[in-house]
Amino acid sequence: MTTYLHITIIGLSLFGIVKSYPNGKNVDDSCGSMIPSHGASAQSDTAPFQITFCPAWYQAGSTVTVTISNTSMTYFKGFMVQARQYSGTSTRYGTFMTTAYSNNACSSSAVVHNGDGNKARLSFQWTAPAAASGNLKFLATFVKSERVFWVQVTSSQLTDKTGQNVTATNCTTTDDSSSSVRTQMSFLFVVLCICISNVLIITV
User: Membrane spanning segments where (predicted)?
Assistant: First the structure.
């Protein structure tokens, strides 16, 4: 009985670690600051993540592919992405389409995660406002863990070319969200090994 109780406690404790991250819902209180309500301060060093987009311009009502990715072997579990004026105002522009791994937030002017697995590279479709809005930028909050996150990581300038002649750009993207599956499977394997080790120790 003691053996099974010991295994159960270990298993539930470690399972709790896997499931301790939110799914990105109910974050509208953070739409302005982009700070997650995790009871911790944001990191002050340079984030190991970046925001890129294609094409480098937009016109009223056009679509831009926005990609968030890591710049090292550091993965992110959560995120929030918005478009704002390049000059630095807090007004949000455009809307994001949801994907299999994201939810809308802030009246669809932001996109957030819907799973707690590790992520390396994800892309989203952003639709520009119906009217010219000036040069913009994308901002993102990246969450590595509940108490480790970077707020308002900024992209380069997205140029407003509404009313101008532009050349169509072929934008291709690849997503890497499968790392979340690999990581969780590896973690569960470690849990299993720990449980088996404890059984052997107790029975001996």
Answer: 185-203
**Tokens (6 digits) for 104:** 């809308």
Dihedral, CA atoms, 194, 199, 201, 204, nearest 10 degrees?
Answer: -160
Fold category of 30-203 in CATH: Immunoglobulin-like (2.60.40)
Contacts of 120 (CB under 8 A, 6+ apart): 69, 70, 75, 176, 177, 179
Can you give the pTM of this predicted structure?
0.76
Cα torsion 161, 163, 169, 171: sign: positive
Do residues 68 and 81 touch, judged by C-beta distance below 8 A? yes
State which amino acid sits at residue 198. N
pLDDT tens track for 63-95: 999 999 999 999 999 999 999 999 988 999 999
CA dihedral sign, ordered 98, 99, 100, 103: negative
